[in-house]
Amino acid sequence: MTITAFITGANKGIGYETARQLTAHGVTVLLGARNPELGQAAAAKLRAEGADAHFIRIDVADEQSIAAAAAQIEADFGRLDILVNNAAISGGLDGDGKPSSGTLATLRHVYETNVFGLVAVTNALLPLLRRAEAARIVNVSSEVGSLAGRTDPNSPMSQMVSAIPYTSSKTAVNMVTVLYALELKDTPIKVNAANPGYTATDLNANSGFRTAEQGAEPSVHLATLPADGPTGTFWGHIWGQEEYGRIEW
Length: 249
Ligand code: NAP
What we know:
- The protein is of the alpha/beta class.
- The chain has one domain (about 5-245): Rossmann fold (3-Layer(aba) Sandwich).
- The chain contains 7 helices and 8 strands.
- It has helices at about 15-25, 35-50, 65-75, 105-130, 145-150, 165-185, 210-225; strands spanning about 5, 30-35, 55, 80-85, 135-140, 190-195, 235, 245.
- It has an 8-stranded mixed beta sheet, with helices on both faces.
- Helix 1 (about 15-25) crosses helix 7, helix 3 packs parallel to helix 4 and helix 4 runs parallel beside helix 6.
- The radius of gyration is 17 Å and the shape is globular.
- It starts with a strand and ends with a strand.
- About 45% of the residues are buried.
- The structure holds NADP nicotinamide-adenine-dinucleotide phosphate.
- NADP nicotinamide-adenine-dinucleotide phosphate binds near residues 12, 59, 140 and 142.
């Protein structure tokens, strides 16, 4: 049986690596990208490595584009086994980057992609995920949005002063993850949030200390969970540790 995964924002960075690593599990990967040239090129690169990879045009901040992507996946594949909500933007920095310097325009812009887009994509694809034997939904989050980390004086997260948009968008993604997991708890569908760790990608001008290959590992792990795996968890790289594990919300 063919297992099919749709990864948003898969033309580069952690999303591309997630797609690449999933192909090693024999998964057919649908690379979601808003730029057709970049999406086609990424899919062609994976096909050149022998993968079954296809480009799907999607701008997660555009509901029409989401509906078109869902219709294309339904027409071409009939169902979906894995959804990795990976696409996100940082929103850059307003002023000195402190909460009090932020603009509502940036906050709205970041939420359109990171939160509203993720919910819209999930709702559009849930009918196809329900048709799969045991679907997996992975929401790519970040430890920077962990309320537990931010409020624990012993956590490095509590030492950082961060702008509101990106950070709080990931806190929202965490709650969205929990709510879907609760709604779907009596189904075979598992919904978890991944923490890639601080990864060198365009999102942070390549300042991260982990590689995109490493950053993709938590998403791939959660996308391929066995039947007795968890749902409603936040899992991945733990700052300062070698091992992956659960992260406090
Ligand atoms: P990246 O290299 O900037 O990749 C982001 C991807 O999302 C790109 O493919 C981008 O497409 C796409 N995207 C952005 N807005 C989109 C939209 N409206 N519609 C469709 N695609 C869109 O960043 P990354 O580091 O790989 O980020 C991947 C995920 O990991 C994100 O959820 C991020 O928050 C999370 N994360 C990253 C880190 C880190 O340290 N890098 C840490 C924790 C969590 P374009 O090429 O068209 O812009």
